[in-house]
Amino acid sequence: NYQASEQGKGSGAVSICLPCFRFHWVQLSLVTAKMVGMNFSSSKQFVKPPQRGIFPLDHEAECKPYMEKYLKCLKEEKNKHHKCRDLSKEYLQCRMDRQLMASEDLDKMGYSKETE
Q1: CA of 109: how far to CAs of 14, 24, 74, 93, in Å?
Q2: Is 4 helix (H, G, I), strand (E, B) or coil?
Q3: Residues in a beta bridge with 79
Q4: What angle do CA 95, 98, 100 make, to 5 degrees?
Q5: Which of 2, 17, 50, 72 is the most exposed place for a label (fewest CB within 10 A)?
Q6: CA end-to-end span of the chain
Q7: pTM value?
Q8: pLDDT band at residue 109 under the 50/70/90 scheme
Q9: What value, to the nearest 5°, has the Cα angle with vertex 83 and ends 79 and 85?
Q10: By C-alpha distance, which of 95, 113, 14 is closest to 104?
Q11: Are the CB atoms for 92 and 60 separated by under 8 Å?
Q12: pLDDT of 115
């Protein structure tokens, strides 16, 4: 928002449109104030580890059929996981049987008869 000055039209000289300059200066001041308030260097993100710890990947695809059945069920049931409960239980049991995750009572993981 600069305007050519009357004196130097051919010389390429410019003068500042004062109302425009004031508007943009105020806008810049507000943006700068907001950015000062956002201290990017001190913002820390806290990442929580998985509840059951880290477990090995199924490199041999031993439990892949169970996983595929479970994922297919989720897709067919529009992600209503409670309808695929038995398949997820089978998948977890497969992983535990092959030492791909720590063995644990499935009842403690929410698969007891009472929680159905």
Answers
A1: 73, 59, 19, 11
A2: strand
A3: none
A4: 55
A5: 50
A6: 68
A7: 0.54
A8: confident
A9: 105
A10: 95
A11: no
A12: 66
Least trusted range by pLDDT, from 15-19, 73-77, 83-87: 15-19
Select from 93, 91, 73 the least CA-distant residue to 83: 73
Those residues with Cβ within 8 angstroms of residue 98's Cβ, 6 or more apart along the chain or in another chain: 58, 62, 63
| Partner residues linked to 101 by β-bridges | none
Question: For the chain, how long is the longest CA-to-CA vector?
Answer: 90
**70: which 2 tokens?**
């479970």
- Token pair in block for residue 95: 């992983």
- Please tell me the predicted confidence (pLDDT) of residue 41: 57
